[in-house]
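Bug: token stream looks shifted between consecutive jobs. Job 1:
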Amino acid sequence: MVDPNTVRNVLGVIGNVISFGLFLSPLPTFIRIIKNKSVEQFKPDPYIATILNCAMWVLYGLPFVHPNNIFVATINGVGLGIEIIYISIFLIYPSWSKSVAYHKNSDDIHRGSVCRLQYYHVLFTVDIMKMVIKTKSVKYMPFGLSLTNFLNGACWT
């Protein structure tokens, strides 16, 4: 018989490795942004959603909130740091050709939840898919990102 803690630890390590790959999968995009000194048509929306998502999972994984979830807290802490770096790159190389309007929505402020963050994360991915279909180019949706998203979802389910 296999010890449940051993299984939990092995799956936690596998999940962390896949999640780390997921957080690093946009790296070629950001290398390109730095090289070109322009964000081109890339949007920061999915990275902002991921920052919020990681922050919520870090809070959930803290030992005093939910014991024995150190794997969740550590990988999402690492992901939070990586995503902050990505957003910093968007701030360093902004695209001023488009103006962005900011509208405060009180529903989002008062009813925010992990589920809503997950919804936004998926919504931004769908927005990118729309651009892929419209432009008939997968330039803005790297295969590595799609694959690691699939593996990450499969592992944590």
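Job 2, same session, no restart:
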Amino acid sequence: MRHLRTNLRQQPFPISGLHSNAAMRRLYHSVARSGVEATQGETPVLVYSSDDFTNLHSIHKEAGPGLQEWDRRLLQSQSKSKFFSLLPFQFESMLTKKHFVLQLEVFPKSQFLKFYT
């Protein structure tokens, strides 16, 4: 067992920039401010906005936590066809890091991006 530990310490292999050895993972540490704190009081600049963002966002806000209400509002909205055309992208975003962006804002001073997906 000692020989195995020695080999793992001497030859860690990286996975996504980190080492697979649990002892090596502890060497990486970063401290970052939260996005809410960093952008507090700063006005975002709109970079991109989809044509359907306003309608889809209002459906989300008005429906609240209930899924049935959200479904009902979506099926009665003008953005129904757009939503269903984006289903392949939504499924893909569950499996990959890619997301379909409906709106993008930048906070110039704090250098943060805010994505609405």
